[in-house]
């Protein structure tokens, strides 16, 4: 134990799951067999398909695990930090790396070669047992879709204006309320009011930028030893080169941008990337919106950084917190804790208004979502939710816009003819433009996935970028009522043709927990009358019934991707009757309240898993 390096490795092994339950002499034996290796940020430690002759234990830093199949983009499997191990599957199997491992930040790894690995399996039987448990856990995660997500422990927040500096206090308060252990390191000169639940420390000064960065790194390593997380709060008073040095140990960087000063923030970021391009994959936009703004600015040629961004409506008064601010901060907290909630809203014509009742009930309980997928009317309701409208406000606006003239209401089957006329007159676009204008999907406060079907390829189309109104128009484009929309070399119709409840696209984009809302789980019983009083259904009525039956059939094929289903009984309401908005919302709210206990229990389990992962 006289060797400080050996003692440091020994302490790491004591707290690593790989060495759980091992005796002191066994830990020393493993420590003697390990060799320290350094990897710079972005370096590939192991590449999928190449020979594997050693395994690794993360001593400092963080690595990313990705898997490639055929010609698909690499799929994220996990982020591994201090105490985690990888590479054992190649040593135990066919000696081929099953995945690619890349250093996210400058990292120190402890390498164990094949020869010493084989010797330890014999001399330390408990090591083999722990490796087996780890393999079982990985298999369970694959089977249940519970893949480990990034839980960054060292996060840099770069403020680009004085207004963005208000976010850190709201974020810190929310993390402390979760019981998290963390410290804020800041370079602010002004006094920061002391708050309970976390520590605030000013970044130490130094004669040169390099020495200051070295002191910050040393302090971060000390804090991480007894706190679960470090938030490095920077006011960007530093030069680009010094800022790059300060951010070097950060696993993730948030570039905080006041929406009204986006151009200068973009220019500053590009200057930083010109100085330190390796930081790009770690940097995320965090848009700070004003109360009167619904959408983030659109950048035509943004800097190349991480794809996920966040939008936060920040109130000017520190003591106030609007519902949109609470939602935004909650999404940031869940991102830090490695969880992501998704909700899929199915199609169903006017019955889709029940979605707003479901969302109203969940919003009242403080349950917000990080990702939304919608098909047909579900895409329309999802657009309202992701655009920052309260469910009640959206319901009243839609009810007013979709209530037909008195003539349609007096005609037999008038609601169906009204719906037909909306398509023939292309009235959907005219209805939505005053609210959305030219807003793009990537500007919405919550990411929205909109589904349509291309009749040329016969494939499902998932829109997550581009004109928001165009995307919804494609998704609600009923093939019996309207011609295909020709765009981007495709002939697009209603997404419900192939996927009426798009739960399966959410895990593919990082959702850990998926709620589905199916508004057509029960068909209206009075189609074609009753056995005692049969009647012949009209053409429009028959076409709508075909749409309902098709939606019911394709929805059942996607149920495997669900964690919880909410199924409002809308069978008493017509597919085309939008005048019953309030009643449909009530039906949706009742259905949501009936599953609230189960939903809270499941989300609680997800939170508990996140806490265990952070405090291991």
List keywords for this structure.
seven-stranded parallel β-sheet, single chain, eight-stranded mixed β-sheet, alpha/beta, 616 residues, 20 helices, globular
Summed over residues and divided by their number, the pLDDT gives a mean of 86
- Could you describe the largest sheet, including whether it forms a barrel? 8 strands, mixed
Low-confidence stretches: none
Helix content class: 25-40%
SS-derived structural category: alpha/beta
What sort of overall outline do the alpha carbons produce when their principal axes are compared? globular
Per DSSP, what share of the residues sits in E-state strands of 2 or more residues?
15-25%
Q: Which value, in Å, is the CA radius of gyration?
A: 27 Å
How far apart the termini lie comes to: 25 Å
